[in-house]
Amino acid sequence: MLKIDGLVLTVADPDTGQETEILHGSTLALAQGEALGLVGESGSGKSMTLKCILGIEPAGARVEGSIALDGTDLLTASGEQLRRIRANDLALIAQNPHGALNPVLTVGRFLIEGMSDARSLDRGEAQRRAAALLAEVGIEDTDRVLRSYPHQLSGGMLQRVVIAGAISGEPKLLLADEPTTALDVTTQAEVVAILDEKRREHGLSMIFVTHDLDLAAAVCDRLAVMKDGAILEIGTPDEIRDQPKTDYTRALMAARPMLYPEGGSGGTPEPDGTVSAEEAGA
Ligand SMILES: Nc1ncnc2c1ncn2[C@@H]1O[C@H](COP(=O)(O)OP(=O)(O)OP(=O)(O)O)[C@@H](O)[C@H]1O
């Protein structure tokens, strides 16, 4: 359903005009209902890949190659086609849920406005549907949460609300960009479990961006390992674990020794869980 071919992203320095190539020809494909983890250290190009899919790359950037969603190339689609695709087919779950919600609207309004048929629903029906969405993502006191403004809720609760909103539109593709990094550790596990469960239930495809190879392995069918704007290898979690093709991948695994006890030779994790390139032997 998604086919990225030879994706090259070049940005120009706004002052000097000097160009830097950030993505060097990424190629990957995603099947309907499949979850793909984009994994790599900070700065490897994971978020930029998502931005290219969403068409929100930095101002002045040049994108080459193709990004086809069910046959429509997002890089050459018309403005109207893109608007429709972004509204109906793509949903972003970003690191910070506060950025996804309008601070002056209640959670109820946020969810109701996101319903494609919101205008034809009477108030009671819209409220009931919004409450059902919250219940789906494990929120119990739905009335209170629907009446709440974003600042009155915890990050974990808000990220559940964002997930509820994302799945309610039945998008073709969920784009999750480090969706739990900003949450505390206990909440992280709960939110990832909800995302994983709901995505599978609804049969949605997903690209899951993280620097945490273990986490990606737990929720994704395949992993693509990124470094310096290039995809080094793609495989199932088992393939990546059992036959890593690069020292860099081995080092990413070694950064999480608990689940990958035989995870290779090099690479001390930085405090944020990333691995330096030198230590990775790259
Ligand atoms: N607005 C921008 N203009 C120019 N270059 C940028 C911009 N944002 C990021 N970059 C560069 O693009 C490269 C890839 O960054 P990207 O944010 O995609 O990495 P990432 O793998 O998502 O890292 P992180 O895990 O820290 O989010 C980096 O070298 C970064 O410095």
UniProtKB/TrEMBL annotation:
CDD domains: ABC_NikE_OppD_transporters. Residues 2-253 form the ABC transporter domain. The lineage of its organism: Bacteria, Bacillati, Actinomycetota, Actinomycetes, Micrococcales. GO terms for molecular function: ATP binding. It comes from Leucobacter allii. Its main location: membrane. This is ABC transporter ATP-binding protein. It is a peripheral membrane protein. Residues 259-282 are annotated as: Disordered. PROSITE patterns: ABC_TRANSPORTER_1, ABC_TRANSPORTER_2. Belongs to the ABC transporter superfamily. It is found in: Cell membrane. Keywords: ATP-binding, Cell inner membrane, Cell membrane, Membrane, Nucleotide-binding, Translocase, Transport. Pfam families: ABC_tran.
